[in-house]
Design goal:
- The complex is a heterodimer of chains A (57) and B (816).
- By secondary structure, chain A is an all-alpha fold.
- Chain A has two helices and no strands.
- In chain A, 2% of the residues are buried.
- Chain B has 25 helices and 28 strands.
- In chain B, the strands form six sheets. In chain B, strands 16-28-27-26-17-24-25 form a seven-stranded mixed beta sheet, with helices on both faces. Chain B has a six-stranded antiparallel beta sheet with strand order 8-7-9-15-10-13, with no helix packed on it. A six-stranded antiparallel beta sheet of chain B has the order 18-23-22-21-20-19.
- In chain B, a hairpin with a 2-residue loop joins strand 7 and strand 8.
- Chain B starts with 29 loop residues before the first strand and ends with a helix.
- Classes of the chains: A mainly alpha (57), B alpha+beta (816).
- At the A-B interface, helix 1 and helix 2 of A face helix 1, helix 4, helix 7 and helix 8 of B.
């Protein structure tokens, strides 16, 4: 039976871990905008040239 | 005669789409870099993007660019650098790094997101920019020592994304729409609920009866108690607060019985644990809080990007140009004092009551009064705030401060200070009040009966708590929150956005519908145009369009829009002259061309004039060729919608700030002539609604669009604002609807009514549960475990039922 005490406490801590992950993600703003990131991921970063190449047309 | 017949005589030519904005190039095409552009603005943005190597903008969504606003002028944003303005606009600043969150109404596609998030490539001082697409906002973090706020505004304006700045940003109250704490609370309550349920399972199945398990049992109880603490004190805090503030105001609100039930359950549970008489009801307690929080979350879900509480401050500019010692400066309008001289440019709003100093001004009051045609004002006239200047810039002298002007007085009306949402009045609240009093009485009677008459103290406590528990009003509350929450999102799918659940309930009681005219049942900037007279050749139409393009008068603009198949010429017109209130003239080569009122083009005897349209006369070399008639165009589905509403027994009215001109067209639609009221001031509109409500006991739905309807929208039971672009600006209201969806109004009202029946049915379901549970509970037969199981089961049934029922009725009404 002694094992049960340990297991229950361990399972509670695992659950607490998930809860804190959730709170952390809300705090970081992960749920503030559920639309833009989905669009952003489909966009390319574009042709990254660190220094803009100036062209004169 | 069919409209357009005389105007368009040529098949539509295919013209290349603009490389930047994708619109068909209508006039002279600008060729640059092997691409075609429709205007200077578009080609300029292209050049800027090219210079910064950002042309992949065009490869994301094709030509989706925005032509920069022509109203931009040098120094427009200078006021942003004033410390008192900047400090209110900036979200954060430490003297070096600053961040600002700007509303940019023009954000519309993924290219916009991409470009606005590449701002750092224009200027290294911009550290990052993050777009929130649904809210149409961009948060820019920048080095305030290297780039000024005004420079930043100019930069994004130049690429087509002008930030929308209004007085509200500086003065108004910012409403925090997205509240993260609600998510924290749901998370914590869900966590506690799940774990307590698991730890309660042995209890449910009567396990652990042997004496060796007693330690384990105590441990479970203690863990349950600890887990319930944050739920009771943090997650459920709002229920207690709201109940307490209602009690202080000496009435019972919907949260009062919930708070009482939670408190009772919590205290009995603690008693049971301490006295080792039972495991407590922590599972039910946390479960109830969890479900209620979720219900509220759905119900209070706000639509991103839509604001319901706008007042004049959201429309007024932050700054205006003033002239001091011959020098133009931009000052915040809050600092305008009487006697200041201000310069108002074309299409700018006049922010304060003022006296005109320039010789002539053409003021468009459509925003305030609903009058669609601009009025002419002479030097020395008083001009009230809220009008827009059309045409050349004018100078004005300020009479009164902004906060004391005529327009802002409307907001001092009592109507704006009282709350429409009286929680006491909602269906759920009414039923709940009776319900909770009855439950309390039954529970107390049961307790007294067992305690004193049968003298069984143990059973008395058990019967008391179980009857409170099974009869917890949560199921009742859930039925209304989930039904309304679902309806909100269903309405949202059809571009009808009620502000909250109360608005839906009030909508279901509506019996009278009042329409505003301009912008509500007419389409903004759309008109039916016909030409009467000698047919104009195509060359002549080109001249007419070219001339009309020079003027910013609304009639000229409509004419230009209607002549879209004619290619305007870029050829310079000589001696262009515009006389406000009269017309325009210019020389095309040697031909004098005049457009305007009949007097202006020297028409001696104006032909038969029916007064329900505007006229533009055309003359070439003093010879009148005929005239265009412009009639305001009604939404095509209007007649059918009003007819349907009348058939369903609604009273329909029309209230317009405009002139009587359209009475003959509208009276057959609205039936009785007495239901049409014209030339109504904003104040009169408000009084009219009030009169209907007080003297005839009607529940009024007001449909309007402009600031001139703001009072009436506020006074009515449901104020519905119509907007052709939902993310643009609309007055304070209870619901917003997209213009083309207005025809579905009968369906919307019916769906709201179905919603109320669904709430009633689910009330009945939960009542059956309660009666069942209660009858067992008062006899003391109900074991707490069974009560604990019955509660979540009843909640889940209610949630399922309301979800399915609302979806079915939405399909039923919306399909028609």
């Amino acid at each position: 039976m002694g094992a049960l005490y340990v297991l229950i406490l361990v399972s509670l801590f695992v659950a607490l871990g998930f809860l804190s992950t959730f709170i952390w993600s809300v705090w970081k703003g992960h749920f503030d905008d559920d639309c833009t990131p989905a669009m952003r991921i489909l966009l390319d970063d574009g042709i990254i040239t660190n220094k803009p190449v100036k062209k004169n047309s | 005669m069919r409209p357009h017949e005389h105007i368009i005589e040529k098949p539509i030519l295919t013209r290349p789409p603009c490389y930047h904005c994708g619109e068909e190039c209508k006039d002279d095409i600008i060729h640059s870099d092997e691409h075609a552009f429709c205007c200077e603005g578009c080609s300029m943005v292209y050049d800027i993007l090219k210079e910064n190597d950002l042309c992949s903008y065009y490869s994301i969504d094709g030509p989706q660019g925005i032509s920069p606003d022509k109203s931009y002028f040098q120094g427009k944003f200078d006021y942003l650098d004033l410390p008192e303005v900047a400090s209110k606009l900036l979200e954060f600043t430490d003297g070096k790094l600053s961040s600002i969150n700007w509303l940019i109404p023009k954000i519309h596609c993924s290219s916009c997101i991409w470009l606005l998030e590449q701002l750092h490539r224009f200027n290294p001082a911009i550290r990052s920019s993050v777009v929130n697409f649904p809210e149409k906002k961009v948060r820019i973090t920048f080095d305030s020592q290297q780039i000024k706020l005004s420079e930043l505004a100019v930069l994004i304006t130049k690429i087509g994304y002008e930030p929308y700045l209004s007085l509200n940003d500086v003065e108004g109250t910012q409403s925090q729409k997205w509240n993260r704490t609600r998510l924290y609370k749901i998370g914590i309550a869900g966590f506690a609920f799940g774990n307590i349920m698991l730890l309660s399972f042995p209890e449910y199945f009567h396990l652990g009866e042997s004496s060796s398990d007693q330690n384990l049992r105590t441990l479970f109880s203690i863990i349950n108690f600890i887990l319930s603490l944050p739920v009771f004190f943090y997650c459920a805090a709002d229920f207690f607060k709201s109940a307490w503030s209602a009690l202080k105001g000496k009435y019972l609100n919907i949260d009062a019985p919930i708070a009482l039930a939670l408190l009772c359950v919590f205290l009995t549970s603690i008693y049971q644990i301490v006295s080792k008489t039972g495991p407590g009801y922590f599972d039910s307690l946390t479960g109830a809080v969890f479900f209620m929080l979720i219900g509220r979350y759905f119900q209070d879900k706000t639509y991103a990007g839509i604001s319901f509480d706008r007042d004049y401050k959201s429309y007024f500019p932050v700054a205006v140009t003033t002239i001091k010692d011959e020098k133009e400066t931009r000052v915040p309008i809050t600092e305008l004092k009487s006697g200041d001289k201000m310069l108002v440019r074309n299409q700018e709003l006049i922010p304060a009551d003022a006296v005109l100093l320039s010789s002539r001004a053409l003021i468009d009051y459509s925003f305030v009064s609903g009058e669609s045609e601009p009025v002419e004002r002479q030097k020395g006239d008083t001009i009230y705030a809220g009008g827009k200047q059309t045409g050349l810039s004018v100078e004005l002298e300020v009479l009164r401060q902004v906060s004391q002007s005529y327009l802002t007085q409307l907001w001092n009306n009592d109507t704006f200070t009282k709350e429409k949402e009286n929680q006491n009045q909602t269906l759920a609240a009414r039923i709940n009040r009776y319900f909770s009093s009855v439950i309390l009485i039954i529970a107390s009677l049961t307790f007294l009966f067992w305690f004193f008459i049968l003298n069984q103290h143990e059973t008395a406590f058990r019967a008391f708590t179980t009857s409170l528990l099974v009869a917890c009003p949560c199921a009742l509350l859930l039925s209304s929150t989930f039904t309304n929450g679902n309806l909100l999102s269903l309405f949202g799918k059809h571009r009808f956005y009620p502000k909250n659940a109360d608005a839906i309930e009030r909508l279901s009681h509506i019996d009278t519908i009042v329409f505003d005219k301009t912008g509500t049942i007419t389409q903004t900037n759309e008109a039916e145009i016909e030409f009467i007279g000698n047919k104009l050749s195509e060359d002549e139409l080109v001249i007419v369009k070219t001339l009309a393009r020079q003027s910013s008068h609304p009639l000229s603009r409509m004419l230009v829009k209607k002549l879209e198949n004619i290619i305007g010429s870029g050829r310079m017109l000589m001696h262009f002259e515009e006389t406000g209130g009269a017309g325009i003239k210019a020389f095309w080569g040697k031909t004098e061309v005049k457009l305007g009122s009949s007097k202006w083009v020297e028409n001696a005897n104006p032909s038969e004039k029916t007064s329900n349209a505007s006229y533009i006369y055309v003359s070439f070399d003093k010879k009148i060729r005929g005239y265009f008639t412009l009639k305001s165009k009604y939404r095509p589905e209007l007649a059918r919608t009003v007819d349907m509403l009348k058939k369903e027994g609604f009273h329909t009215y029309l209230l317009s700030g405009d002139k009587q001109t359209d009475r003959p067209i509208l009276s057959p639609i609205f039936g009785k002539d007495t239901n049409l009221l014209f030339e109504q001031s904003p104040e009169e509109k408000l009084r009219f609604i009030e009169n209907l409500q007080k003297n005839e006991g009607r529940n009024v739905l007001m449909i309007g669009d402009g600031l001139n309807d703001a009072g009436a929208l506020r006074q009515s039971d449901v104020g519905l604002a119509v907007s052709d672009d939902i993310n643009n600006f609309s007055p304070a209201c209870d619901a917003l609807v997209e213009g083309i969806q207005l025809e579905k109004l009968p369906a919307f009202i019916n769906l709201a009514k179905s919603g109320q029946s669904i709430i009633k049915i689910s009330f009945t379901i939960s009542l059956i549960y309660n009666v069942l549970g209660l009858s067992l509970a008062v006899t003391g037969k109900l074991s707490p475990v069974f009560a604990a199981i019955l509660m979540p089961v009843s909640s889940i049934t209610i949630v399922l039922f309301t979800t399915i029922a609302t979806n079915i009725s939405a399909q039923k009404w919306m399909k028609r």
